[in-house]
Amino acid sequence: MKIVAPAGNMERFYSAVNAGADEIYMGLKGFGARRNAENFTLEEFKQALDYAHERGTRIFLTLNTLMKNVEIEFLYQNFKVLYEHGLDAVILQDLGYFRFLKENFPDIDYHGSTQMTVANHVEANYLKSLGFKRVVLPREMSFEEIKKIRENTDIELEIFVSGALCVCYSGNCYMSSFIGGRSGNRGMCAQPCRKPYTSSEGKSGYLLSPKDQLMSFDEIKKLKDIGINSIKIEGRMKEKTYVYEAVSYFKNLIDEIKVEERVSSIFNRGYSKGYFYQKRDNIMNRDYPANMGKPIGIISGKELLLEEDIMLGDGISYISKDYEILGGDYINRIEKKNRKEKYRTAEKGDRIILINAPKGAKYIFKNYDKEVNDDIESKLKNSNKKKDVYFDFIGRNNECPILQAKTINNFGEEISVTIMGENKIEEATKRGAEKENVIEKLSETGDTVFKVRECNVYIDNNIFLPLSVLKQIRRDALENLRMKLIESHRRILERKDIFRINIEKDIPKHCELSVMVTNDRQEKVVRELGINKIYRRGVDIARENNLDKIDLNSQLATNLYQVLENKNQDVTVGWNLNIGNIYSLNEYAKIENVKTVIITPELSFEQIENIGKVPVRKALLGYSKLKGMYLELPVFKDKEIITNEQGDNFIVRKNELGNDEIYFEKPLNVLSQVKRLGKIGIDEVVIELLDETDEEIRFLIQHIDRKENSYSPYNYERGVF
């Protein structure tokens, strides 16, 4: 089972490699689901590829965002450079972008991102049939579901084991997008889940903020035992010490070595096992949303009863009863109660005096652990991941010495070089060379990228082998092998023409009106108003354990399983599948029975028009109390209202699976622009109902294309970043 580590810049990249990561995921500047991370220039990425390939580490490029028409071909040249330089795999969310890359660059691995929310074996097998090599399952999966998926598919599976949890399914969170045009699906999430909210039930705090995930020995063993291919560490924006410690920790666990967990000493906003077990009552942290460190006790006056060990040089924060940071200190003296001596350390259970504690401080958190950080920094300086090399040395009297060096590249291919010494070997006048000494000298690889795994030596008796000869032949062999190893990862793109879909301007349409209803009452009203095309609201995710609860007779498909297994002859794909470019629309058009696609409301009108003519009908939300989040948790009561700091209200609704869905109280409404929508190529305008009264429904439908319908376009006018 491999470790997949994050790298947000070169410093963190080196940390991940030298901690022993097997695979590393990285982003190019301006692309991927962490566009706010520092990320890599093209030249830095090429440098990283060579460094990793020398040491047997694989590199994945993150392109796991939704793409607009103009962007899909824009990255072609940069991707071609990385493809030819030896990029190992690419992580994708957008099916259309996958098709573009797969057709143009066939000889590379493609991984389905967790943003695709592939949560069952049917969807996983579909991705494999398209040409995906691996899928990253959602963080919301329980072990039993992961196990069941593993038993029913042979596509590679990757599982998150540590780092930040989104409270909403990745790929199905639109809060940041609809609030301010910063789309999480485009790598620009403003993290509204980490902001305070107040509920209509009187609760206040960080009601949508989860703790981080951190699995331990038992969970890793379970995943290893069922044949999971790789475990993933989140954290492209976390520091190099976090990356190093997390990789080291999980490397030990994979090797079934139980070690003390120290990740929480570096970054800590509370930890849980996430969704791994059925019990999920420990996931949220409503008190604080950011890295506060480890709580080490509650202060009384100036006295603190320690719940953790401390030492000189540790950093602490003073926290109020409301979890506000009042200040911080480095511990430069340790004074124990009723003791005159000064101490370098204090242990759990000791009562110490904090003379600088500010008024109002209640909690003390250790936000810098000197011992842990010093240890990691020391290891970082002395770590250098090396690649196994196999030597065969032949030394015959009156012949030039020969050294063959072999290793294995990331494709599993054997790479070898054979080096012959310049001068013939002479007979020894004194003591001849001994096999054990030759092995010892050849194995001294020093600061090279190699370590000798096996060294076979075949020498004649009583020959003279100077140390300088062994050093030179070893040096030449390893340098030649290093260069050949790097070159072995290079590709030449055979295809000269670029696969692309030509965009043809669509003709104006007469928009059909359809309505998505939540209950029988709404459907009755809608039918009375003469609407013929009526959808029933569905659920966003088809989890492995809930497949029997997914309505395959529904004309509206709101998850990929429902698209693939639908029994209708005329299926409409829901907007939450994030379809917004000509390539994606063409890809869904290949699925039997898909006739209509509701385009993502994260596009502007101009971008929607620029999609052009496609083989399916294009539908668009005309009215909707937009769904901002889909939670795999029962966090709130049904029909509760929560309010953010800006005064925006959100409606909480429980779906038929008992999960919370969070909707914007202020609806999107462009019904007054129906004629305009037809002119930009829209075939169908969808009214999506939630809790509207009969009178509100009648008003909406009876005032179609009239200014009485209050115009509220959200992203249709501004687009998203």
Give the termini distance in whole angstroms: 36 Å
Q: Please count the helical segments.
A: 20
Please tally the β strands and state the result.
Answer: 39
Give the overall shape: flat
Overall pLDDT metric? 95
Which value, in Å, is the CA radius of gyration?
30 Å
Please state roughly what percent of the residues sit in beta strands, choosing from under 5%, 5-15%, 15-25%, 25-35%, 35-45% or over 45%: 15-25%
Strand order of the largest sheet: 1-2-3-4-5-6-7-11
Task: Describe the fold and architecture.
- This protein is α/β, with parallel strands linked by helices and 721 residues long.
- The two termini are 36 Å apart.
- The strands form seven sheets. It has an eight-stranded parallel barrel, surrounded by five helices. Strands 28, 29, 30, 31, 32, 33, 38 and 39 form an eight-stranded mixed β-sheet that branches.
- A hairpin with a 5-residue loop joins strand 36 and strand 37.
- It contains 20 helices and 39 strands.
- The longest helix has 21 residues, at 467-487.
- The model has no long low-confidence stretch (mean pLDDT 95).
- Helix 1 packs parallel to helix 10, helix 2 (42-54) packs parallel to helix 4 (76-85) and helix 5 (95-104) packs across helix 16 (582-589).
- Helices cover 26% and strands 24% of the residues.
- The radius of gyration is 30 Å and the shape is flat.
